[in-house]
Design goal:
By secondary structure, the chain is of the alpha+beta class. The chain is built from 2 helices and 4 strands, in the order E-H-E-E-H-E. A 4-stranded antiparallel β-sheet has the order 2-3-1-4.
Length: 96
């Protein structure tokens, strides 16, 4: 089962900031400057946390995971906003 997570980060070094951004860009939808929405199964969550663990400085940086619930249930509509709408990216199959 896939679960929706809101992932936010505060990274103090520009190199590590870019590294964390690239890691999260591959895992979810970039919503705002340091905020991503990721739909992950348990294995993907463990892998993502491992990559981020290796990328950050644990004394200076912070990454937070907020569990929004099942991606097909509450997690799908758990984010409400004002102004410009939050539109998740469209998943497409690429055939080569």
């Amino acid at each position: 089962m896939r679960t929706a997570y809101l992932v936010t980060y505060d990274i103090s070094d520009p190199k590590r900031l870019r590294r964390v951004f690239v890691i999260l860009q591959g895992a979810g939808d970039h919503l705002q400057l340091s905020v991503f929405r990721c739909e992950l199964n348990r294995r993907e969550l463990v892998e993502l946390r491992g990559k981020l663990t290796d990328a950050i400085h644990h004394g200076e940086d912070q990454v937070l995971f907020a569990d929004l619930g099942p991606a097909e249930g509450r997690g799908a509509g758990a984010i409400a906003g004002l102004g410009r709408p939050c539109v998740p990216r469209e998943e497409r199959a690429v055939v080569i």
